[in-house]
Design a protein that fits this description.
Chain lengths: ~140, ~300
């Protein structure tokens, strides 16, 4: 499974993972990317994932579905997923072929994605997480 | 033995003979036409006037144009190459199209010239019927090719002009205007057909990219009506914009359009619509976190 050069670079940036897809991936490569990414979310205890598809000028239905699957899996492992950099042509092709990204947040570019994740995790830090912490502290 | 040679002659050699005829007859023909240039041209010009063609041109212009058309015509007969004529016809079309010359007039004058010259050939060769036939064999294909070339060039030029105008109308018709940082407005005025809707989507999506827009207000106050295809296209455009991280607000739906959309059952649940452009702008500013208020000046009572 893990043969050939990596076509997706997954970089760690604080508590986020940034995955840039550099070239169109075939189905096997897409699945490998999915496995790598989901595994690393656990390893680095990431809170957010940004998938940058700015270099892609084509995205097939399998690719779109895999991105959606990744987002769902990441959510289950505790990370918010944002897809950034969808090109105009790709966006319109996806819509006209009915390849929706479901509930996944899509944003303009990496910068936007980082800003979104910052605001999202900050909100969690102020509202969601302290509640959990007090709960766990209260238990023993 | 003799039979077989006879049979061999027919098909292959008739073609060769005809070609030889053309090689020989056409230069002769051209020489005649050059010789009688003035009379033939005048004859042609008066036929044009009789038929009421090219009324948009003055008689001097007509004389100049007919002379050069005549010369080009004879030249094509001589060389057999239509390229120069094509260029001339396109050039001529460019000059006369803005003056309202119609296709039938252009084709008409070329056919008139063909007839004038054919009549002249009849007069000249009427004593020798066989020769006349061969002359016509050489003349007719060339003449038809010329008529064809002129008509095609004219229509092509006309289509080019139309395409050019359509392009400029289209560019004008879908402006993408940045009004604030990260806020775009698209005022749409006039009928939205599917071609224009496609154009609009393209411009909007590239606009979002270049201006890094977060909110887009599409104002369709000036659109009289939409059909189902265009409505669906609008919905798709909104979805595609969302994929690029921008939210879209549609404003100014007329009662008629609202009724159409509801009747044809387009899925509008994901569409954000607000009554008028003012409301849309206010909502967009709210989304972007702008607060706009009038400055209360202490000087005023």
């Amino acid at each position: 499974m893990t043969t050939g050069p990596k076509l997706v670079s997954i970089l760690r940036q604080g508590s986020y993972l940034i995955a840039s897809i550099h070239t169109a991936l075939d189905d096997t490569q897409m699945v490998r990317f999915q496995e790598d990414l989901v595994e690393q979310i656990g390893r680095y205890r990431s809170r957010g994932v940004i998938i940058d598809v700015a270099a892609l000028d084509v995205l097939d239905s399998f690719g779109a579905r895999t991105l959606r699957t990744i987002a769902e899996m990441a959510r289950l492992r505790g990370a918010v997923t944002v897809i950034v950099g969808i090109q105009p042509d790709v966006a319109f092709a996806m819509v006209s072929l009915g390849m929706a990204t479901g509930s996944v947040v899509t944003l303009l570019d990496l910068e936007e994605g980082l800003a979104f994740l910052d605001s999202r995790t900050q909100r969690n830090a102020t509202s969601g997480r302290p509640a959990l912490r007090t709960l766990s502290r209260g238990a023993p | 033995m003799t039979r077989s040679t006879d049979a061999n002659i027919t098909s292959a050699d008739v073609g060769a003979m005809r070609r030889a005829d053309e090689d020989e007859l056409l230069p002769q023909l051209v020489a005649h036409l050059r010789e009688h240039r003035t009379t033939l041209r005048q004859d042609w010009a008066s036929r044009i006037q009789e038929s009421g063609l090219l009324l948009a041109m003055t008689s001097q212009e007509m004389a100049a144009e007919t002379t050069s058309v005549y010369d080009n015509y004879v030249e094509v007969l001589e060389t057999g190459s239509v390229e120069a004529l094509q260029r001339y016809a396109r050039d001529l079309s460019e000059r006369i199209i803005p003056r309202g010359v119609e296709t039938h007039e252009v084709v008409g004058i070329v056919l008139l010239l063909r007839d004038v010259l054919a009549r002249f050939l009849f007069d000249k060769y009427q004593r020798d019927f066989g020769l006349l036939n061969r002359v016509l064999d050489a003349y007719e294909p060339a003449a038809n090719r010329i008529a064809n070339t002129v008509a095609v060039s004219f229509v092509e030029e006309r289509e080019r002009v139309i395409r050019q105008q359509q392009d400029s109308i289209r560019e004008l018709s879908t402006p993408v205007l940045p009004v604030r940082e990260r806020l775009l407005i698209l005022p749409i005025i006039g009928v939205l057909d599917s071609e224009r809707a496609r154009q609009l989507t393209e411009q909007l999506l590239t606009g979002i990219r270049t201006h890094r827009a977060k909110v887009v207000v599409i104002d369709i106050t000036g659109v009289p009506d939409v059909d189902e295809a265009v409505a669906n296209h609008l919905v798709q455009t909104v979805d595609a914009s969302r994929l690029m991280g921008a939210s879209v607000i549609i404003t100014g739906l007329s009662p008629l359009i609202a009724q159409t959309l509801v009747t044809i059952g387009v899925d509008l649940s994901k569409m954000d619509t607000i009554g008028d452009l003012q409301g849309g702008l206010e909502e967009a500013e709210r989304l972007l976190g702008y607060t706009v208020g009038r400055e209360s000046s202490p000087a005023s009572p």
